[in-house]
Design brief:
Blueprint lengths: L26 H11 L18 H37 L6 H36 L2 H23 L1
Length: 160
């Protein structure tokens, strides 16, 4: 260490900040130049743009989001309808017992259970169709294969 730099106990010399450094730049002028080059507010794009005007990636993202919404609608509709059928069958339990009420309760419960089983298959069919429309042929073929295996299993179950 030189005579000008006093030694500080516990601090390595490489960690010491020199007294005189490079000359400071005018930060205000730099920020004004940067503000002119990069505006603080991003330009707002219109909410309704024609799909042809969007870049290809954004169009694909919009289609993907629309497909996911359709799949969600299929699942939601199946679950809500099945739940409504179960609740209706429970409400029919409050009526006096006769043959028609008993048949209605039985049909509603069997229909609700069947709908709960069919909803994921409908979701798979919807996803396979949307993947095929997007050109994802491998995944569309896999979805079709799974549906085919399910149909084979159901057919074998009916034969037994």
């Amino acid at each position: 260490m030189s005579e000008a730099e006093p030694e500080i106990p516990g601090v390595h010399p490489s960690m010491m900040v020199p007294e005189a450094g490079p000359p400071r730049r005018n930060l205000r002028a730099t920020s004004v130049a940067l503000d002119a080059e990069f505006p603080r507010e991003l330009p707002q794009e219109p909410i309704t743009q024609p799909e042809e005007a969007l870049p290809r990636e954004r169009r694909g993202a919009r289609r993907l989001a629309a497909g996911e919404r359709w799949i969600a609608r299929v699942l939601r509709t199946g679950a809500v309808t099945s739940g409504a059928m179960f609740v209706t069958s429970l409400a029919l339990e409050l009526l006096p017992r006769d043959e028609s009420v008993h048949v209605a309760i039985d049909l509603l419960r069997k229909g609700a259970a069947s709908l709960l089983l069919v909803t994921p298959v409908a979701r798979l069919a919807m996803a396979g169709t949307l993947l095929g429309l997007r050109g994802e042929w491998r995944y569309a073929a896999i979805a079709a294969g799974v549906i085919g295996l399910l149909a084979l299993a159901v057919g074998a179950g009916f034969q037994a």
